[in-house]
Amino acid sequence: MIPRYSRPEMVAIWSPETKFRIWYEIEAHACDAMADLGVIPRANADAVWKAKDVEFDVARIDEIEAVTKHDVIAFLTHLAEHVGSDEARFVHQGMTSSDVLDTCFNVQLTRAADILIADMEGLLAALKRRALEHKDTVRIGRSHGIHAEPTTMGLTFARFYAEMDRNLTRLRVARSEIATGAISGAVGTFANIDPAVEEHVCRKLGLEPEPISTQVIPRDRHAAFFAALGVVSSSIENIAIEIRHMQRTEVLEAEEFFSAGQKGSSAMPHKRNPVLTENLTGLARLVRMSVVPALENVALWHERDISHSSVERNIGPDTTITLDFALSRLTGVIDRLVIYPDNMLANMNKFRGLVMSQRVLLALTQAGVSREDAYKLVQRNAMKVWEDGKDFKTELLGDADVLRALSAEQIEEKFDLGYHTKHVDTIFKRVFKD
Amino acid sequence: MIPRYSRPEMVAIWSPETKFRIWYEIEAHACDAMADLGVIPRANADAVWKAKDVEFDVARIDEIEAVTKHDVIAFLTHLAEHVGSDEARFVHQGMTSSDVLDTCFNVQLTRAADILIADMEGLLAALKRRALEHKDTVRIGRSHGIHAEPTTMGLTFARFYAEMDRNLTRLRVARSEIATGAISGAVGTFANIDPAVEEHVCRKLGLEPEPISTQVIPRDRHAAFFAALGVVSSSIENIAIEIRHMQRTEVLEAEEFFSAGQKGSSAMPHKRNPVLTENLTGLARLVRMSVVPALENVALWHERDISHSSVERNIGPDTTITLDFALSRLTGVIDRLVIYPDNMLANMNKFRGLVMSQRVLLALTQAGVSREDAYKLVQRNAMKVWEDGKDFKTELLGDADVLRALSAEQIEEKFDLGYHTKHVDTIFKRVFKD
Amino acid sequence: MIPRYSRPEMVAIWSPETKFRIWYEIEAHACDAMADLGVIPRANADAVWKAKDVEFDVARIDEIEAVTKHDVIAFLTHLAEHVGSDEARFVHQGMTSSDVLDTCFNVQLTRAADILIADMEGLLAALKRRALEHKDTVRIGRSHGIHAEPTTMGLTFARFYAEMDRNLTRLRVARSEIATGAISGAVGTFANIDPAVEEHVCRKLGLEPEPISTQVIPRDRHAAFFAALGVVSSSIENIAIEIRHMQRTEVLEAEEFFSAGQKGSSAMPHKRNPVLTENLTGLARLVRMSVVPALENVALWHERDISHSSVERNIGPDTTITLDFALSRLTGVIDRLVIYPDNMLANMNKFRGLVMSQRVLLALTQAGVSREDAYKLVQRNAMKVWEDGKDFKTELLGDADVLRALSAEQIEEKFDLGYHTKHVDTIFKRVFKD
Amino acid sequence: MIPRYSRPEMVAIWSPETKFRIWYEIEAHACDAMADLGVIPRANADAVWKAKDVEFDVARIDEIEAVTKHDVIAFLTHLAEHVGSDEARFVHQGMTSSDVLDTCFNVQLTRAADILIADMEGLLAALKRRALEHKDTVRIGRSHGIHAEPTTMGLTFARFYAEMDRNLTRLRVARSEIATGAISGAVGTFANIDPAVEEHVCRKLGLEPEPISTQVIPRDRHAAFFAALGVVSSSIENIAIEIRHMQRTEVLEAEEFFSAGQKGSSAMPHKRNPVLTENLTGLARLVRMSVVPALENVALWHERDISHSSVERNIGPDTTITLDFALSRLTGVIDRLVIYPDNMLANMNKFRGLVMSQRVLLALTQAGVSREDAYKLVQRNAMKVWEDGKDFKTELLGDADVLRALSAEQIEEKFDLGYHTKHVDTIFKRVFKD
């Protein structure tokens, strides 16, 4: 985790305090369930809840772990210091450490997913607002970085909205992938603990019981989770690249918001760097890099090996923290992106109407000119634009051969931008469904 | 694509013949829709269907492409050779090459997904059959490659079933991710073509219209598709690793089926290599390697660049063909896997009852022995087993201090395998839901 | 392998014919060495060379393999059909299949590396030529896509040269990584074959004997090989991205060569797409995707498992063929890249001298103006440029406060491009070392 | 960075204190060089060295950065607080932030590489010691996890030595890849700073001047660096997997050292988990995951974009810290690995001599028995071993048909382990070159 790329709410999910709190809840709920089953005395289960408002002392637990070399035992020892060692003697009975660790990890991932989902909803709101704002702001569409046909800035925002809306669905699916818990013992057979305990604990923690676990919860779930985050991050990169292109000096159709006070802004007004979206491009790589190790974590030996653990200690917090930060940063960028409609028009007209050459070509053939002749007509006028800086429409209007096929009005019509934007409403209805 | 790791049905999806057939259908359906809209004459639309039963001549199209340097134009030229050049003159009107290419690619991926889904259903059937067959076949559960507590072979199959059942869901989601088409023109604005054409073509091809496209269908969809395949392949690796472990000489709890006639089998009966599951381990890596480039493909420049194309020409066929082969091979391995229950028992008893030491420890403390004393009692008997090869239960039954806490009957009970398998039915009900 | 992205010489390395030829040479040289050692009769070794000019019949070998289910045995059987079954009876004696397969694979990789090295030398020659040609062609240097300070096109080519020169070194190291052979038997102990055989065969094939092998040559070598190719491909992407930027409509400082006859070039002169460099961007991803599976291939079980094999059947040919094609294509692009110096100047002047604002700021402070005042002076003139389209130098020359600190001559000097190019020769000497 | 997987010396390289110290040295040396060139007054250069023994106040610098939003400016401001703001006024003159940041990063990577190289030398020493110790400790070699032919534990260690020795070379090459510095200004043209400054600073810091840089040092260098680390980590995984296999219950040929006091060791002596090597398997994945983003970092836009930066803030420290920890942990594991030669023999004899069946087969054919007959002879005796648990050699010695071809002595000889170990010395000489 890099502090500068993190936000406190997500960081808190991964703090030792939160972890121990979740461990505590798992153990306490498990005791309740065991008491209900008559496996342990009700009084002992009740006693565990005495620690309900305790904030566990991480330093003290670390101290105990330094001796016991076992994190869960260290925690249980510390818990007994609060609950009383006799009262606590049934805590964790029949359970294996992974029951606690894996269920806790999934609680953390689920909470992380909730934040990411909320982040995404915030991003969608920003994208939608900007899409509506610029629904009719015409800019040139580009393929291969080369001018193609006009489109609108609203369509650009709308397609990012649609992409992120799919990512919202993916995040929800990802959340459900890892929203399971397991309290099933050393190899998953419930030999020493009743399945009812798992059911109770999961219900209390908002998880589904894992239908079949071994010592651990199967890791294909986590692989699917991190793969989904990788897709989301690639979409972030997609938007970031678009903005970086729009901000480059020669294009300048948009700029990341640059506060008035920001140093150097007015002595070098040309030097406003799209550092946020460049940063997002890098953050996308960081999120994405968790996908392969998460996939490699799936194939564990027999009922479990612990190779996945060190990977998850890293990618669990780092990937969710980075993605949370990235989504939030992107939302800010979108919210305050400065759009330059005039520059959009200027860019579109850079080659003085040449982007309409294909429409003119089509119109000529539809007017009965042979394909070869039509091509020659367009070509000779296009070349005057390209080489001598003439205006395409003006040239066409002055070309007698062209005028034989098309009226001045018809030629004018080929340069009408409304032709290109006539289905924008239709597309918006499809995307925003309202 | 490696021929030896491919199956004809999936290969056929990626043949030029199939591709041209799909292109043809896209163009023909588009003409129909345009005729319905009154944009082109009905007769011209009808004429295109004259080629309905034509098998397009790939060599001829290649020949034309060598001249035109454009694959779609080459195809259209060839189509006109069948339909008549006058009749064909409205084909592709208002469309851009990507309308055809992208929609076709998604048709191919959708069909590929259908095969993968069927493969997965076949694998699930095999896993379920073997799970039921070996529901009560006891074997030792292992964590860290070390004996832990007993489980059953049926549970092993059942957990693979549950994992692959999740993968079936992922494949279905993946299929829906890429089951869209787009006929929206050069930058996705429908400037030259009515959205109704897209709707008609998509309906005919079993796709949803892409709500908003640019020149291309957004690539987050494909990223999600290949990411899902990566998860599936990692689960294949997971099963493959389990079988490779079971077949290793010292374990020998299972073997890949080895036909009687296979050379060397009986002169070196110990040398039956798990080559199929080793191969599956490698194939999993091959499938997985498509995930990163698919993620890198998401961020295209503006309304499209063509960097994704060469990647997809490779991973489209290669990944689906390899995964199809792998799923099929794995199904065969599971179907015919030779299970050795006797070896399972022998392995479990390798340390003569020591795997039960934890149960004994627990029983002693529950019987009122202090934790320290209980530990010492277990330890001194365990050491006789470990160092002198004694039998654990026999030693316990001969230890007067132990017998003071536990009756012989109680000790015997701790070695009862039924204790470990008592919830197998419950788990099976969860997994197989019937 | 995608045929359109492949070149015959590299493809030939991976043909079955080449493979069998190499197998033959390994076996024949091994017989020679065994005869020298007196292990087999000289006559039998000599007899094997009878097949020296045979082109092995791939179909026939496949036919035999369909029966024997073993590729090396099938080949040996076919070889015996040429050499005579009695004469051939000592062929392969004491060897294991992997001795042939692994040594052959490394011969193929070595030859592939030779082609890649030659490709790189060709690319370097092109880069150097263009660097010298455009040593003094001034263009604006950009950070963050934003104009920074002037540089020259020659420096751009020179830095690509330097990067590719490092890649040449990496390719040479990569070649030496995999230029080893092993003829060491089933587990690498030379139990059934003398190490002298390995030495002889390796010497004849231009390889080093692997100091210690198991059944296979260790795969860290291959991992390092493919990792190096991944680095090379990322450098290809680096150059491709630069060119794609230069060709985008608003920049237009360079274009991929576009032959006069290429369709559409003159009717839509603005629509020349950088499709070759976009393609190279995708090919870079394809090459790079072999790195992870190659790394995953390193950890084999004990003296070998065969999980690496299916991976290598794919990435061996595909990665080298793709990289060869990419290097060749890039060389063509560089060789014929059309450079537009006028556009470079026009772009640099897009903001009428503002890129020099930092130099002016520095000059003012050096002339004794306080940092704050200097900033204000620059700012008020910069704003007139930015907002009203004035020329920066003109404004400065008309600003009395500025003129109090700097003479007109000094101001002029700040706009002298020679200031920025004065060390170009020094850098060229460092890069080209001549 | 995960604290539990880190060691202080490597962590210290990445502390803010170290970073600021390096920045200081770069700036101070640059001032010296500028004074030598007469560009700035000598007194000002000397003044900077007043801060030579200062430990920079990270909190204070952070405080300033909170205002200036720029890390290098914040540092320079703080430096001026020590040196005096007038004396410090030439510090950083003509330089760009990246000159400091990139050169510092490479100093850090170089130091990190030095630690990794020392780690590797330590590991090599441990591997060599254990190789010599177990040079003649016979164990079964395995292919596909199946018994093949005998080898020795010393050969296992020796091949890991050879692999890690190659990795030592790779680390040294990797170090030289990133041991460069650049002080070349905003776009690498040395417009505002003499190349002599770069040369001086680099010499003082033990770096080579980057022959040609832009605003940044080219990132192919860093890609090659992290790729090398990825290869090293895969070799770590290779050794880890071997040990995990050796420790699994059914094999038990080795165990990670388990201190006498470690809880649970003697009450459950069978339950010693190879947790260190499992952990190393996961750490290898963590190291490896930096390779792809490092490759993706190579293609920067024009003279630089800052997308690489966030990636490097993570993988710079995390990858080197993790690899350092992993190498150190592995060295400890190797140093203290408990080897069980008796179990090795017991495993080898698990199938009572069957592993020698191939030698017997060969001997029979060499003695003139036809291939078919030899096969049958071996097969019928092998089957008695496989199915009835007989001893292979005993059966052969009792088979009259076998005895017709081979004398009892010859049969005995086929079971001689010396046959398999006769070239161990030769191999050791190749590997250890002494």
UniProtKB/TrEMBL annotation, chains A, B, C, D:
Query: Which pathway is it part of?
Result: Purine metabolism; AMP biosynthesis via de novo pathway; AMP from IMP: step 2/2; Purine metabolism; IMP biosynthesis via de novo pathway; 5-amino-1-(5-phospho-D-ribosyl)imidazole-4-carboxamide from 5-amino-1-(5-phospho-D-ribosyl)imidazole-4-carboxylate: step 2/2
Report the PROSITE patterns cross-referenced here: FUMARATE_LYASES
Q: Which InterPro entries match?
A: AdenyloSucc_lyase_C (IPR019468), Fumarase/histidase_N (IPR024083), Fumarate_lyase_CS (IPR020557), Fumarate_lyase_fam (IPR000362), Fumarate_lyase_N (IPR022761), L-Aspartase-like (IPR008948), Pur_lyase (IPR004769)
Single Gene Ontology BP annotation: 'de novo' AMP biosynthetic process
Is Lyase one of the keywords UniProt gives this record? yes
Q: Does the keyword Cell wall biogenesis/degradation apply?
A: no
What's the catalysed reaction? N(6)-(1,2-dicarboxyethyl)-AMP = fumarate + AMP; (2S)-2-[5-amino-1-(5-phospho-beta-D-ribosyl)imidazole-4-carboxamido]succinate = 5-amino-1-(5-phospho-beta-D-ribosyl)imidazole-4-carboxamide + fumarate
Q: Which protein, by its recorded name, is this?
A: Adenylosuccinate lyase
Q: Which organism is it from?
A: Sulfitobacter sabulilitoris
Source taxonomy lineage? Answer: Bacteria, Pseudomonadati, Pseudomonadota, Alphaproteobacteria, Rhodobacterales
